[in-house]
Amino acid sequence: MIQPQKIREFCNDIIALASGDFSQDFVNDLKLFPFSQECFENWHCCLKEKESDLETKDDFCNKVKDNVESSYGRQLPGFLHYGAFESSAKYLIRKLEEPALEMQKEISDKVKSVLTKLAYKHFAGLPNLLKETKVIIDKIRQMQEHEANQMIKTLFRMESMIYTQDATYSYRLELMEDTEEGSMHINNKGLMSTESVVSLLTTHLKIYYKIASDRLVDLVPMAIKYYQMQESITKLQGEMFSILQKRDLVDELVEEEGTAAEKRRNLIERRERLNKARLALIKF
């Protein structure tokens, strides 16, 4: 039966879409992998830009200075207060959450758009099946967008703990000390002014930010790919195959629209007339 075959062909296409199978004859607008890779590269650039802003953005420098001054207590001048470091690091991480969620929304919209276009491609002339497929796509999109958002927010809540292995931080610290600027900031053991403390704290924040951004540069795209591309398409495939198991539903959904059905009947009648004419000629 041709209509169930259309469902299977649609499922084959969305599987190829999820796997990035470029052997399929997809127009560029239907290719998810190049689009998502561009988004992930922009995310990588965003993290790099935030890193370069650590010493150039006045609002961040003022925030660090405020944290240093508000943390002054019993410690002697020149000592770093961990609370000032922690508050500044959390501030840095929070600034990354919104761009991550915006990227997730952008890819979610693209996935829905591509799947809907594929549905139109395969189910043109089958309005009931097309409508049902669009409903399924929208339902899955909402569910997976919620799941992806929750995962990204969980990642940032975890990052707000401000944690890394001692060995990891020590290694990064040694790398920073190897640079002339880093050695000057970190190894300055003399009495330091507030500005010097802020400069030293900024150096430590650059080290920690590099560690955190190295985690997020992969984890955020992995979460988006898992929920928006892999899981969305797996669930859509399951929903479409479940339709094939329901005989009554298939018959209802694959009913052709009037013009398509009329064309099909006309072609069948024309073929029958041609066959009759051919038989008549043979007898003659």
From TrEMBL:
InterPro entries: Dynamin (IPR022812), Dynamin_stalk (IPR000375), GED (IPR003130), GED_dom (IPR020850). It comes from the Eukaryota. SMART domains: GED. One of its GO terms (biological process) is receptor internalization. GO terms for cellular component: cytoplasm; microtubule; nucleus; plasma membrane; presynapse. GO terms for molecular function: GTP binding; GTPase activity; microtubule binding. Pfam families: Dynamin_M, GED. Residues 198-284 form the GED domain. PROSITE patterns: GED. This is Interferon-induced GTP-binding protein Mx-like. The lineage of its organism: Eukaryota, Metazoa, Chordata, Craniata, Vertebrata.
